[in-house]
Write a structure and sequence with these properties.
Structural class: mainly alpha
Number of helices: 5
Distance between the termini: 31 Å
Order of helices and strands: HHHHH
Shape: elongated
Largest sheet: none
């Protein structure tokens, strides 16, 4: 079961998150039709704020997934927050 080790699963999870973000960017109009307008997004982001919110969320998911898959997130947390949890 070498395929299901933690390093491979981290990569696979990151890629799935990136794909979800990419699909949210592409299909944000269909997602908006399915969910309807989001009140706070329309209020704070202006007219069409729901589309903008889905676009921002998709971009964050895409780059966050890439960062997770490559280990950048784990390294950042280890370096910056590791001292608080006993990791040096």
């Amino acid at each position: 079961m070498e395929l299901l080790n933690l390093k491979n699963m981290t990569f696979i999870t990151g890629m799935l998150i990136s794909i979800a973000g990419f699909l949210l960017i592409i299909f944000r109009e269909k997602v908006q039709r399915a969910t309807g307008n989001i009140g706070f997004a329309e209020q704070y982001l202006g007219s069409g704020g729901t589309y903008t919110l889905f676009l921002i969320l998709g971009v964050v998911l895409f780059f966050g997934g890439i960062s997770w898959a490559t280990g950048t997130v784990q390294t950042w947390f280890s370096v910056n927050l590791g001292r608080f949890f006993g990791h040096v």
